[in-house]
Amino acid sequence: MAHLHTKLPVCANCYYAFPEGGPDDYCPRCGQQNHDINIGFGHVVEETLEGIFHFDGKVFRTAGLLLFHPGELTKRFLAGHRVPYVPPIRLYIFISFVFFFVLSLRFGHEEKKQEKALTAQQQRQRDQGLRQLDSLQKAGFVPPGVAARVPPRATAKPASKNEPGVGFTIGKTHLGPDEIKRLPAEPTNAQLDSVLRSKGEKSSFWGRLSVRRFIYWRDTTRAEKIHQGLRALSIALFLLLPLAALLLKGVYFRQHRNYVAHLIFTVHLHCFLFLLFLAVLLLGYAPFLEEYSAWLLWLIPVYFVVALHGFYQQSWGKTIGKSLLLGLTYTFTLLFAVVSALAMGFILF
Questions:
Q1: DSSP type of residue 295
Q2: pLDDT of 129-167, one tens digit each?
Q3: pLDDT category, 64, cuts 50, 70, 90?
Q4: So where does this one cross the membrane (predicted)?
Q5: Which residue stretches of 152-204 are H helix?
């Protein structure tokens, strides 16, 4: 990444002397960029981001093609124009990281809003009860001093754990809330077998594992549940990439393209989806724009069709027909992947 900064005659790190008239952008001995240390704050931020994500001018060129020229980024990358653009996997990791980070913040924001609304509702009910109590006290039906025992403010109880009234089912047998409540946080195999046998279930590894995992989730806070759910979702979407590329290869098998070409197109498509959903999340923070943010989702089918047409170079009729087939198949595959990831997350995480 080139910058217009004062060059030093000697490397500030290893004291290598640059030959006069030779290349002096980077030190050939240690690799450090050669420029004066008196640089602006913006350059410090840029170098920091570059060190973490290789964040430089490539990002803006890549984002421009990705957002406004569907399919073109994949065409240029496969044509060998790779230096000016961010590599697909690195781009996917960066954008998905930002998306899931903002999504986790959004969940926390909504939870706080619900707690505030619940507190306000409880406060109104408390104030109404105090007014009724005061009227009864003035009428002589309630002894003096009762109202003073009421807490000064109502507070919402945070929904950090599962309520004790929740049961679950193993096979065809339902375990009630009282039975689950009696189990300790780390039950022994004998305790688990006793519960299973009392319900007519055979003692098995999967039966004990199911009860253990439910107890774990019973004692897990809401924030931890959200974190684990997002973790499972991110893994599912990443593992879905090769499956989606395989669908593309099957639909466009007559073009005899390499599988990697379909995979790169799939990665770029998912990067656009992450950016679009990220925009929807960010617009949700603006009250006057939140109701309109969902309209952005209509860009998904439009972008998908244009990207397919631009990359695979088929007629609009064939492209629209194949986009419907791919969209339907991808939706079922996505649902299966998400459900499977959540199920695996319940067992493993």
A1: G
A2: 666 656 656 655 555 655 555 555 555 444 444 444 455
A3: very high
A4: 89-108, 232-253, 259-283, 295-312, 324-348
A5: 177-182, 189-198
| Number of domains making up the chain | 1
What percentage of the chain exceeds 70 in pLDDT?
66
Q: Residue 249 contacts by C-beta under 8 Å, 6 or more apart in sequence?
A: 257, 259, 262
Rounded to an integer, what distance in angstroms lies between the CA atom of residue 135 and that of residue 348?
57
Cα separation of 319 and 311, whole Å? Answer: 10
What the block records as the tokens of 2 is: 């080139």
Read off the tokens for 192: 């688990």
Q: Judge whether 132 lies within some domain.
A: no
Closest CA to 93 of 215, 194, 238: 238
- Rounded distance, CA 209 to CA 242, Å? 31
Task: Give the range of the structural domain holding residue 20, as residue numbers without chain letter.
Answer: 1-39
Q: Rounded to whole angstroms, what are the CA distances from 53 to 50, 65, 96?
A: 5, 19, 13
Structure tokens at 64: 């421009």
Distance, in Å, from the CA atom of 156 to the CA atom of 121, rounded to the nearest integer, reads: 9
Distance in angstroms (rounded) separating the CA atoms of residues 192 and 178: 15
The one-letter code for the residue type at 213 is R
In a domain, 18, yes or no: yes
Instruction: State the Cα–Cα distance between residues 8 and 36, nearest whole angstrom.
Output: 6
Q: Is 30 inside a domain boundary?
A: yes
Within a domain: residue 62? no
Q: Supply the pLDDT for residue 74.
A: 95
- Collapsing DSSP states into helix, strand and coil, what is residue 10? strand
Cα atoms found within 13 Å of the Cα of residue 349, Cβ hemisphere only = 18
* 168: β partners: 175
Number of helices followed by number of strands (H, E) in the chain? 12, 2
- Element of type H or E holding 175: strand 173-175
